[in-house]
Design goal:
Length: 197
């Protein structure tokens, strides 16, 4: 099916690769892949304590905070980066040694990963109020509703209501999407593209 609603309440819970916590696997390709052989993966984790990130060699990652006060990232090059639920996005290689420190209590994050050399991705924050047209030229498009209110999506005449804290995955259906929200909303828009093989 070209359209899949992503609901954390029905996602598969599984341990982190380093065993330090658990994550909800929202979508993975190919179906049935594991943490060592996926092409791309979308997940959401509840982080209750500070610690090191799992290593994913050969994987490109984008990470955002969906709920909670925020997260400080200590990068391998010594730089410090702060993520909060305001649309900031961290982009890094899965092999990089990164440690995370909670700013003030647990957080919930959204994690988008693609296998380098096979897929690429771009994740960006989108602030929506009223109506907006979004062009889609990706094999896989992720729309994640980080707002407190539902967002309506018209994809080629097919209507989808994305509840707060849920997402929509559009696969192999290029074309414009019409987004509508009666209140100001923050969405994350991820475009995933396969490299020529």
């Amino acid at each position: 099916m070209p359209y899949t609603l992503l609901d954390p309440s029905s996602a598969i819970a599984m341990p982190w690769k380093n065993g330090g916590g658990s994550t909800l696997e929202l979508a993975i390709c190919p179906a049935g892949a594991n943490l060592d052989d996926f092409d791309w993966r979308i997940s959401s984790a509840s982080v209750a304590s500070s610690g090191a990130f799992s290593r994913f060699p050969g994987i490109d990652r984008s990470l955002v905070v969906l709920a909670g006060k925020g997260l400080h990232l200590q990068r391998e090059n010594g730089q410090r980066e702060t993520l909060s639920g305001d649309g900031t996005i961290a982009v890094f290689g899965g092999e990089e040694a990164i440690s995370a420190q909670l700013q003030d209590g647990p957080i919930t994050d959204l994690n988008l990963m693609t296998r380098r050399g096979a897929w690429t991705h771009d994740l960006q924050a989108l602030r929506l109020q009223g109506e907006q047209l979004v062009e889609n030229d990706a094999e896989v498009l992720l729309l994640w509703n980080a707002a407190q209110t539902a967002v309506r999506v018209d994809a080629g005449g097919v209507l989808h209501d994305i509840a707060a804290g849920n997402g929509l995955l559009v696969e192999n259906e290029p074309g414009p999407l019409h987004l509508q929200s009666q209140r100001p909303a923050l969405l994350y828009l991820g475009r995933l593209k396969a490299r020529c093989r």
